[in-house]
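[audit] Reproducing an earlier prediction to check determinism. Same input, same settings, fresh worker. If the tokens differ from the archived copy the diff job will pick it up downstream; this log only records the rerun itself.
[audit] input (134 residues):
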Amino acid sequence: MADTNVYVTAANDAAFGRRFEVFLRREGPLVVSAVAMAEVLIGIADLRQHTSALEALNADATVLAPEPEDWARAAAAVVRLGGDAVTKSRSFWNDALLAAQCARLELTLVTSNVADFQRLGRYLGVRAVAPFPS
């Protein structure tokens, strides 16, 4: 599963995008979290571009929404981390939800933000790696 930052970088950096495509052909198909899908769409101000973004995210992938247990486990992890300004942000909450979902599905998360997922991993057991894992 890939974090939102991986999709955004792939869309904005041609060289990274090509490496991501090679990675997907070698390791795919990818499971896409509905959390990352929503974050990508929120980042696209032009609603006319949403359809093509959704098509790209759904291409050769399975989109899965978090389960109720993921929401509860993510909330518990955020509380255990102390509720500072970072952990109370929408972005960190989405990371927590994504981490809980990945842990439940036993999927590795590819992210450019390994540090936050390592913090969450103490309570959620998520495995996070930087692009591009071998």
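[audit] rerun output stored. Observation attached for the diff report: The domain at 4-129 is CATH 3.40.50.1010 (Rossmann fold).
[audit] end
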